[in-house]
Amino acid sequence: MKGIITKAIGGFFFVADDAQNVHRTRIRGKIKEKVYPGDLVEFKEGMIEGLYPRKNLLHRPNIANVDQVLIVQSLAEPVLDKKLLDRFLVMVEAAGLVPLIVINKIDLMGEIDLEAGFKEYAAAGYKVYFISVKQGIGIESLINDLHERVNVLTGPSGVGKSSLINQFIAGVDLAVGEISPRLKRGTHTTRHVELLPINKGGWVADTPGFTSLDISHISPEELTFLFPEFIEHLDRCKFRVCSHTHEPGCAVKKAVEEGELSSSRYDSYQLFYQELLD
Ligand SMILES: Nc1nc2c(ncn2[C@@H]2O[C@H](COP(=O)(O)OP(=O)(O)OP(=O)(O)O)[C@@H](O)[C@H]2O)c(=O)[nH]1
Ligand SMILES: [Mg+2]
Ligand SMILES: [Zn+2]
Question: What CATH number does the domain located at 2-53 have?
């Protein structure tokens, strides 16, 4: 039978079949590769017999065959950090995965124009979901976009990733952390990885929150292409090799000056570019 690994614990591998029934299995000694949640395997009578090729492998935490990454942030508590959001986007773009931007805790803000506050992300082609787990706002339309896929939640600690999963997966009760009153941020409640079944098909995995992210494996030249809205401007730069930071006749800088590209996104680009040069 073919199945998908949902979690690995103490030498056991839990494998879900097509009907999402979970079987506890062990792995044949002849299989030398490491097996991770998300891996597709062939199994029989409680034994994993073979591993199918994987299309990708996410690190820290290790999850295979990921389709989409939900980058979760909160409007407040912890306060929204667009630089960090841009950093997550660069990570997900570099991995070749589809990012969905999820802005939680909209109940903590009064009447504000959410669409306007994130228009640079829509302009870059990203889907942005505004939700409140606490008040049950926006959850349905988000879940509708997760079906039949392997989805991973990521984002800073305390933004409500585990709370979100608890709300939309029946029978799941992940640990939810208190926001530290002094730091106004979370305290890393989530530790191990498990793929949880979405009602209408598909999987979702929670991850521990990250407060910083390592993007050092990306080359400065590659960075431009990880800001998708920049791409259409690139061939109008005066110099064929342009870092889009200081060169005269740079079409990206010009587009920022003319308000066609977001200066906040461009600031992130410059910040990351310097970081990758150092
Ligand atoms: N006001 C408000 N609070 C929320 C909402 N969603 C979650 N919270 C609270 O935010 C706190 C942190 O939630 P968690 O779900 O543990 O956050 P997390 O992202 O899983 O954090 P880590 O596991 O540390 O990465 C908890 O006190 C939740 O009750 C929301 O929509 N509105
Ligand atoms: Mg959590
Ligand atoms: Zn340029």
Answer: 2.40.50.140
**Ligand 1 atom 7: residue of nearest CA:** 160
Among 70, 194, 203, residue whose Cα is nearest residue 128: 70
For residue 41, give every residue at least 6 positions away whose Cβ sits within 8 Å of its Cβ, in sequence order, or none.
Answer: 2, 3, 4, 5, 13, 15, 35, 48, 49, 50, 51, 52
Cα–Cα distance between 54 and 4 in angstroms, integer? 11
Ligand nearest to the CA of 133: 1
Residues of the chain within CATH 1.10.40.50 domain(s) are: 220-277
**Mean pLDDT, contiguous 10-residue spans, the chain (278 residues):** 93 92 94 94 96 90 92 95 96 93 95 94 97 96 94 93 89 72 51 83 85 82 97 96 96 98 98 94
pLDDT of residue 61: 81
Tell me if 104 CB under 6 Å of ligand 1. yes
The rounded distance, in Å, linking the Cα atoms of 73 and 79 is 9
* Any ligand 1 atom below 6 A from CB of 162: yes
**Is the shortest distance between the CB of 154 and ligand 1 below 6 Å?**
no
Residue nearest to atom 32 of ligand 1 (CA): 105
**Whole-prediction pTM value?**
0.91
Which part of the chain is CATH 2.40.50.140? Answer: 2-53
Q: What would the two tokens of residue 208 be? A: 């521990």
**Is 1.10.40.50 the CATH classification of the domain at 220-277?**
yes
Give the span between the Cα atoms of 133 and 107, in whole angstroms: 9
Residue ranges of the chain assigned to CATH 3.40.50.300 = 58-205
CATH topology of domain 58-205: Rossmann fold (3.40.50)
Tell me if 137 CB under 6 Å of ligand 1: no
Ligand 1 atom with the shortest distance to the CA of 187:
24
Q: Distance, CA 163 to ligand 2 centroid (Å)?
A: 7
